[in-house]
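Table S2 (text version). Query chain:
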Amino acid sequence: MHDLAFLIEISNRINKSRSHAEKTRQKDSLLSLVLQNAIIMPSCSFYKSHSIQSCQVSIKDSSRCAECIRLGRSRCDIQGLSAAEIRWIGIQYQRLENQLESAKEQLRNAAAEIGCLQKQKRLWFERMIKAIC
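Corresponding structure-token output:
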């Protein structure tokens, strides 16, 4: 039984290796297609952040630049943001705006409560002084 488990484990490793090799071949094939029909465009934001000024992009399909394909990056904004990405950014912005307003309201309520407590403390202190004197 131990031998069967060992063989299954070895088989799984081989399958993972084949799968990885197949993905590498697919990536290399896509990269060579892009580079055969490439044009130079201003760089995507990933490469701008690394001070690279231009990217090579396929004339036929410019969804990802050559360097993002080479590095296996699934997201490349060489074409700019999609409508879904812009919508997602807007939703995140609004969510944070709502959280900020809620936090400000809680802060105002806490400040008002602190003011009331300080006033009560001062009144009780004055009563205590009058009672002692």
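Notes on Table S2: The chain is about 70% helix and 10% strand. The longest helix spans residues 83-132.
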